Amino acid sequence: xxTKYDFDxxxxxxxxxxxxxxxxxxxEYPMWVxxxxxxxAPAIRKVIEERAAxxxxxxxxxxxxxxxxxxxxxxxxHNFTIEKDWLVFCTGVVPAISSTVRKLTTxxxxxVILTPVYNIFFNSILNNGCKVLEVPLIxxxxxxxxxxxxxxxxxxxxxELASISHKVYSIDFDNLDKALSDERTSLLLFCNPHNPVxxxxxxxxxxxxxxxxxxxxxxxxxxxxxxxxTDPGKEYIPFASVSDTCREISITAIAPTKAFNIAGMxxxxxxxxxxxxxxxxxRALNTDEVAEPNSFAVPVTVAAFSEGGPWLDALREYIFExxxxxxxxxxxxxxxxxxxxxxxxxxxxIDVSSLGMSSEELSEKLxxxxxxxxxxxxxxxxxxxxxxxxxxxxxxxxxxxxxxRMVEFL
Length: 410
What we know:
By secondary structure, this protein is α/β, with parallel strands linked by helices.
């Protein structure tokens, strides 16, 4: 792994108004909300310093270099051509989701989600007067085909294969079809790659989702904010790339913020190939006043996508090693906790069903008695009640200390 970037550096975030560190109930090891304890890439910090040095921070436009950065990155990194006309600036993926729900639904409509899933999906739906229609992912033994496919992956260890043969997540297409067929259902919020279970949805799965949504005249909003945080050697598949159907019925929310740890810069984009749909979403974002960039939103995006590749690749390697550390640690010292195999994100999904307490109770006890704050799985829907989500995007020494604290407690 490259030693050019120091991900082992311990940076004190106290006193910076960090949500992760200031709202963690005093936990010494906050491993909950999805931001990283790593400094941003040098190219990003440099462009921030240069822009700040100018000293004037007025209203801003969206220049061609912003569009070019997204187009070039998705072409080179994800082998997908995004056209300039498809892109609309937004201050964040969550604002894009909420604006889309408001524009494409009527209060009382159903919005379908595949649970367990990112907890803010629930907020965006309920806060806009709609109903959450949960379609729980299937959590069970892998099929022979799934296991054989995984076994052919040279990066899979014997331990990972053992986990795969035991429990994996897949889409319940029968229940999805039923949920989409409800005449009150107008929108599906799709998470690709999936937070918190770490699945990268394959082409066949995405195509089938698209066909079912077209069949029932349901629009898809695909949240792809974690797409650049795949394990080394793994690649995600953009929803809109799979078929003409997927392209025409979908809105895709994308951003550099998660991969490059710049969420506080409030910069994102929505990509909408369908012109009629794009007009509606453009109107929604502008009506909600979330379509105007601050003075740093464009520079950090351009720097990330034009110069941040080597840093990101080194980060992915580091996170992958952290994943292996947790996997081996649990297998040796916390055998009553089962790590779900992950292909993407720095968020691990841990089955704690054998511990005999709710995820909320366990999370609270770990926070108060061990100083380790993991998110209760119940926040991600009923299907997450026996799980904890763990953010491992931190220096390895801090991760080891947190795991030791968990062992002492459990």
